[in-house]
């Protein structure tokens, strides 16, 4: 968060008026297992309010100084995923398979000249 408040090396201007992002996440997991195997299926759905974006509508003076945009917090974002995992243990061997799919998207109408900056861990 320090980069968003103070700026990122002069390229992206900081914004000390940023508000914290608010994220609501819902997750559901189903697991089935025995002595030798395990199956899991899951998914999540997240909603962000006040998501951090980069506003590229900056002044000519700021652009001349080398900046390309400034952090702002006016986004609304969503993401969802599905996940699957299978594990088997037998004869001293353990095999595991897992797969996941995640989709994140911006649901806010953006003025021309804004872009979403994803800061996901």
SSE layout and pairings?
Layout (H helix, E strand, L loop, with lengths): L1 H5 E2 L3 E2 L8 E12 L3 E19 L4 H5 L4 E22 L2 E14 L7 E3 L5
Parallel strand pairs: 2-5
Antiparallel strand pairs: 1-2, 3-4, 4-5, 4-7, 5-6
Summarize the structure.
By secondary structure, the chain is mainly beta. The protein has helices at residues 2-6, 60-64; strands at residues 7-8, 12-13, 22-33, 37-55, 69-90, 93-106, 114-116.
3D architecture notes:
With 121 residues, the chain is mostly beta strands. It is 8% helix and 61% strand. It has one domain. The protein has helices at residues 2-6, 60-64, and strands at 7-8, 12-13, 22-33, 37-55, 69-90, 93-106, 114-116. Strands 1, 2, 3, 4, 5, 6 and 7 form a seven-stranded mixed sheet that branches. A hairpin with a 3-residue loop joins strand 3 and strand 4. It is elongated and about 70 Å long.
**Number of DSSP strands?**
7
Low-pLDDT sequence parts: none
Question: Would you tell me the structural class of the helices and strands?
Answer: mainly beta
Report the mean per-residue pLDDT as an integer.
82
Number of helices: 2
Rg measurement, Å: 21 Å
Give the tally of structural domains.
1
Q: Roughly how many Å apart are the termini?
A: 12 Å
3D shape? elongated
Give the ordered list of helices and strands.
HEEEEHEEE
Helix content: under 10%
Residues in β-strands, percent: over 45%
Q: Describe the biggest sheet?
A: 7 strands, mixed
């Amino acid at each position: 968060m320090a980069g968003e408040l103070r700026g990122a090396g002069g390229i992206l201007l900081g914004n000390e008026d940023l508000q914290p992002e608010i994220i609501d996440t819902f997750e559901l997991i189903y697991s089935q297992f025995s002595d030798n195997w395990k199956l899991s299926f899951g998914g999540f759905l997240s909603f962000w309010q006040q998501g951090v974006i980069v506003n590229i509508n900056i002044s000519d003076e700021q652009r001349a100084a080398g900046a390309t945009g400034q952090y702002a917090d006016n986004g609304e974002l969503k993401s969802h995923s599905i996940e699957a995992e299978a594990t088997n243990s037998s004869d001293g061997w353990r095999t595991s398979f897992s797969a996941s799919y995640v989709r994140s998207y911006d649901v806010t109408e953006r003025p021309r000249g804004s872009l979403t900056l994803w800061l996901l861990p």
